[in-house]
Design goal:
The protein is of the alpha/beta class and about 160 residues long. It has one domain: Rossmann fold (3-Layer(aba) Sandwich). Strands 3-2-1-4-5 form a five-stranded parallel sheet, sandwiched between helices. Strand 2, helix 2 and strand 3 form a beta-alpha-beta unit. Bound molecules: adenosine-5'-diphosphate. Adenosine-5'-diphosphate binds next to helix 1 and strand 4.
Length: about 160
């Protein structure tokens, strides 16, 4: 039985699509660890502390959800945290190839680690952190994309990047 799972991601920033997956996972497993990864390949707009703070303000009240910062390999972090499965959201078939590759790599590195894919709510299939950043950068409305608790801070920070 999977009692502890990890939902990894960059969450730069957290979107309503992420919240949907985390909430679904919290109803399926005893403990859900939301692991915020630095992600060397991407250049995050928000610092690790900010991204963790945004998540704490939005899913921090769910009793079996814990938000932490993670560094290094997901397969190793999961082991250290006692998580027996990784939960990832799938938006479209186009996500699948990359996700499948990651799942098998993680299992190779940590044979006890499974990956569980949850389908996102149909209304969020188009949504990503990149979309949020693009829209806010140009001053567009992100009300339907990010949780209300963090909307103003996210919008103002990203819009200010344009100068
Ligand atoms: P990463 O940088 O590792 O892809 P993200 O922060 O972009 O991390 O996403 C974290 C997780 O949330 C991934 O499993 C991703 O597929 C999922 N996810 C992102 N956006 C959505 C969405 N709109 N609906 C469902 N799942 C999503």
């Amino acid at each position: 039985m999977h009692s502890t799972v990890i939902c990894p991601g960059s969450f730069d920033p957290v979107t309503l699509g992420h919240i949907d997956i985390i909430t679904r996972a919290s109803g399926m497993f005893d403990n859900v660890i939301v692991g915020v990864f630095a992600n060397g390949e991407k250049h995050p707009v928000f610092s690790m502390e900010e991204r963790i703070g945004f998540l704490q303000r939005t899913v921090g009240d769910i009793p079996n959800v814990r938000v932490i910062g993670c560094d290094g390999l997901l397969a190793q972090c999961a082991k250290d945290l006692g998580a027996s499965a990784v939960v990832r959201g799938l938006r479209a078939v186009s996500d699948f190839e990359y996700e499948f590759q990651m799942a098998l790599t993680n299992r190779k590195l940590n044979p006890e680690l499974d990956t569980v894919f949850l389908a996102s709510d149909a209304s969020y299939t188009y949504l990503s952190s990149s979309i949020v950043k693009n829209v806010a950068y140009h001053g567009g409305d992100i009300t339907n994309f990010v949780p209300a608790e963090i909307h103003d801070e996210v919008f103002n920070r990203i819009k200010a990047l344009k100068g």
